[in-house]
Design a protein that fits this description.
Blueprint: H1 2-18, H2 22-48, E1 52-53, E2 59-63, E3 67-71, E4 76-84, E5 98-101, E6 107-120, E7 126-134, H3 139-150
Parallel strand pairs: 5-7
Antiparallel strand pairs: 1-2, 2-3, 4-6, 6-7
Helix pairs in contact: 1-2
Length: 155
């Protein structure tokens, strides 16, 4: 995300110097500044809205303001550490019913469910998955807390 912000700022400065027409210059500058603000806001939403384990053992998987998946505790069959490097798009379900919520191109935890959970993807497309792989900074603590909260065992 920092790379995208850097490119947006460079583009804003470059276009501010290259466009000679005042009206086009102003419109482009406003749109570029708004784009930089949007990238910062998207990054901030990912930082301040992390995944949450509820007191009842439920799991909220989040990707900033774009995605919020609630998995009830009674649907979680197993949870384990499992580092993967998926190539699929955000929360897209593959042919095996697996949805990946990668950060930095990797996931560290796999949650297998007893039955599929439905959710709405970032652009409004409905989806359903029976396995979720997501990233957590401290995967060991996350797996331990999830198992303790929901009485879940490893596979």
């Amino acid at each position: 995300m920092y790379g995208f912000l850097f490119v947006s700022v460079v583009e804003t400065v470059a276009l501010a110097y290259l466009i000679p027409w005042p009206l086009v210059h102003t419109v482009t500058l406003v749109l570029d500044v708004w784009g930089c603000y949007f990238v910062i806001a998207l990054h901030a939403s990912c930082v301040v809205r992390p995944h949450v384990i509820g007191n009842d053992g439920s799991l909220h998987l989040r990707y900033g303001a774009l995605l919020d998946i609630r998995i009830p505790a009674d649907r979680i069959a197993s949870v384990h550490q499992d580092r993967k490097f998926p190539t699929s798009r955000l929360a897209a379900v593959d042919e095996n019913g697996v949805a990946d919520l990668a950060v930095g191109g990797q996931t560290t935890i796999t949650v297998e469910l007893t039955e599929p959970v439905g959710y709405v993807r970032a652009l409004g497309k409905p989806a359903e998955a029976h396995t979720f792989r997501f990233y957590a900074e401290d995967a060991t603590s996350t797996v331990t807390a999830l198992r303790a909260a929901g009485g879940i065992h490893s596979r």
